[in-house]
Amino acid sequence: MRQSLLWWVYIFLFSTEGMALVCDSYDPKCQIPTSATASRNSTCSSIQECDHTPGSGTPACYALFGQNKEGELNVMMKGCIANIGHDCAPSSVCNGQQKKLRKLQPLYYCCCTEDRCNHDVVMFISEKTNKNSTMEDINESIRNLTLLVWANLITMMSILVLIAIAMMVWKLISYKRRRETSTNVKRLSHVVCDKGTQQYHNTSNWKKKDFQLITCLVRSTYGEIWQARLHGSNRVIRIRLSAGSDDVYVYDKQVMVKNTNVIYNTARVV
Prior knowledge:
Blueprint: H1 2-18, E1 22-24, H2 36-39, E2 47-49, E3 58-67, E4 73-83, E5 94-101, E6 106-112, E7 121-123, H3 127-189, E8 212-219, E9 223-230, E10 233-240, E11 248-250, H4 259-269
Parallel strand pairs: 5-7
Antiparallel strand pairs: 1-2, 3-4, 3-6, 5-6, 8-9, 9-10, 10-11
GO biological process, one term: cellular response to growth factor stimulus
InterPro entries: Snake_toxin-like_sf (IPR045860), TGFB_receptor (IPR000333)
Main location: membrane
């Protein structure tokens, strides 16, 4: 009777030992063994048998991994873990969910309750990650658009400033020219003209001696404007002073009525 009881105990223990959970194991510290002791360490094995401790929850397999910039998975750790909260999925594949975000790369974690279920890892990127990526793209687009708008505004403002400077310079030059012209007209209006003492070559139908010169109205480097008499009537004539020319131009009789206008307008014509 006692022997049969012992046999039943052995069978129970053997069956319990045979049902222990087996998981893939990975520890980055054991990638390159530095000593014979480290190479014989059980944690450096690729397969780990999970110990079941009463009160610590059922054993489960876990995997901790990350994703690089190219989208590839980098396994960080694998092994056994206690399924205390029964959060591990009863699946033959370890489904990765995002655990937390790091500055360099996201960190993912998964656990399952079947033998070597952490050998194959399937990653499910949470909606939060997609939202973060979308927001980063939107923020980057906004920054680029802001830079483009500022660049265009600066360019337009620079063009407007250059146009304003050019207009100011042009107005200043025009003002100086008008001022010089006005000064010359006033100065020439006080010049006493020569009443025919110089000899001119006659190239027109009128001769200077045909007129009685009365008053010199305007004189410039190109000619003189005179109030003269011809056959008993008053005339306004222009005498050219260019070399080899003694042209006399007779203005209309009505010109004499516009005394002031004749002086300044003819100054521009001469």
